[in-house]
Amino acid sequence: MLYHSTRGLDGSRSFSEVLHSGLAEDGGLFVPESVPTLNRGTIDEWKHYSYEELAVEIISLFSGDCFSRSELTDIVYQSYSGFQHEIKSPLTKLEENHFLLELFHGPTLAFKDFAMQVIAKMFARTLQKKNLKINIVTATSGDTGSAAVEAFKNLSNVNLYVLYPHERISQIQRMQMTTANATNIKVFAVQGTFDDCQSIVKRLFADKELVSDVNLSGVNSINWARILIQTVYYFSAFYQLKFVYGEKVSFCVPTGNFGDAYAGYLAKKMGLPINKIIVATNENDILDRVFKTGTYKSDQVSQTLSPSMDIQVASNFERLLFDLLNKDPKKVCELMNKLAKKGGFNVDKKIIKQILKDFDSGAVTDKDTVTTIGQFYHSREVILCPHSAIGVRVAQDFVNAGETVISLGTAHPAKFKDTVESALNISIPIPLPLKDVIKKNENVKVISPDKGLVAEEIRNSKFTTY
Ligand SMILES: *Cc1c(COP(=O)(O)O)cnc(C)c1O
From the candidates 88, 112, 276, 417, which is the catalytic residue? Predict the structure, then answer.
């Protein structure tokens, strides 16, 4: 399987190159040359597979000769051994025709663990084989950073730099990153928004000299491997519903950077009988607006109760555009130039119509988020995190219209303890892995949103001799 950039970079890349580089050299995102489609026989055959078996099957369709089957099996089993639930992504019923896919049983209690655990083990193997050391930089709205710190800490061939928006994430999210106490990890609180952090990362990658001097690599959701690994739980959820082939289910996905939703779309393209991917946003509703009006325009980021979704540039949307613009990189570049110069662009009506065959959307205010958290606690004793509540609230409209919907439970409520406790007027217990975090000393550097500063830190780290 070979990969191209959405912006037309010459030549193809292997899975291992795509895994290591994160972003393409031309600023685009990597996409596979083609998506393998599964026939009905295969989809039926997989229905009794464990989570790990599904993961091996799906990843191996895309990973070429990067790993042998037995290596991939080792990676997958090791990755999920630390999850607290046997099914890894169990499905629970919320109401008639509405289910919650619990994606918060990993070590840092958010769905980001599913991909990050696997990616870290993939990096460890490939780097060891090549006797290579790398520097990884990642922007986070809170959960990617904690998952990455947990997965990469003390890995000998990797340094990890995490940028998060100062005072715009929850206390527990912050402490999960700042208390790692590992010499290969540096955490920066950037005085700005997530979009500022992401923009620094993109500019670091555009600095060709830096990229080659320090072997710079990225694990944001723009890294293809993360998207791929996340498709597995869509399959797992589908099989848990025990649907008869031919019936269709929609997935409702609390969305920020459009990585998770795009993973669902990929599962659909592979042949999983998904009706719609419903994109649920908070007040940072750029995607809901583009689906409804055709205009993709980023606003100021507003700070909401669901900080992991406080994003106004949904980077992975570029992958969908590439697909729908007949894989024409020139057209993608045109739109991305407009985004860079004018802060937005218009998507052709025909293309929006096509998008709406696979997607739907809705946006939720903080007030409705709080109401929804209360509603499901009182009716079902289910405690939702604010992000999951947004998905559940949007899904309800589709459930009421007669669809079967699986809503993605993207994080554990305890990660957003203050918000959930004030919504419910109760105190919620802190799970063990978080108790540990709260007691430790924090190590973090507050910086202005300056790419140069981060570049210097990476260059100066004791790690940059290869
Ligand atoms: C990252 C995250 C999201 C958004 O996922 P994207 O892939 O960026 O769209 C939603 N909820 C939680 C809890 C997250 O951590």
Answer: 112
User: 387: burial class by Cβ within 10 Å (0-12, 13-18, 19+)?
Assistant: buried
Question: In this predicted structure, what is the pLDDT of residue 465?
Answer: 41
CA 254 to ligand 1: nearest atom: 10
* The two structure tokens encoding residue 352: 């929006």
Tens of pLDDT along 410-426?
A: 999 999 999 999 999 99
The pTM score is 0.96
Cα-based torsion angle of the residue sequence 363, 367, 368, 374 in order, rounded to the nearest 10 degrees: 150
Q: What is the pLDDT of residues 236-285, one digit of tens each?
A: 999 999 766 667 899 999 999 999 999 999 999 999 999 999 999 999 99
Q: With contact defined as beta carbons under 8 Å apart, do 94 and 100 qualify?
A: yes
Query: Which of 116, 260, 265, 316 has the most ligand 1 atoms within 8 A of CB, as the residue to mutate?
Result: 260
> What's the 45 CA to ligand 1 centre distance in angstroms?
31
Instruction: Spell out the CATH class of 91-107+226-424.
Output: alpha beta
**Closest ligand 1 atom to 230 CA:** 7
The one-letter amino acid at 245: Y
CA pair distance 137, 141, nearest whole angstrom: 14
Q: Are 79 and 118 in contact (CB under 8 A)?
A: yes
Beta carbons within 10 angstroms of residue 180's beta carbon: 24
In whole angstroms, give the CA distance from residue 443 to residue 28. 33
Q: Give pLDDT tens digits for 79-134.
A: 999 999 999 999 999 999 999 999 999 999 999 999 999 999 999 999 999 898 99
Q: Which of 114, 316, 410, 412 has most ligand 1 atoms within 8 Å of CB, for mutation?
A: 410
Answer yes or no: is the C-beta of 410 below 6 A from any ligand 1 atom: yes
Predicted local distance difference test score (pLDDT) of residue 217? 93
CB atoms near residue 356 (< 10 Å): 13
Report the percent of the chain where pLDDT is more than 70: 98
Q: Is 112 in the pocket of ligand 1 (CB under 6 A)?
A: yes
- Any idea where the domains of the chain sit in the sequence? 91-107+226-424
Query: Would residue 440 show up in a list of annotated catalytic residues for this protein?
Result: no
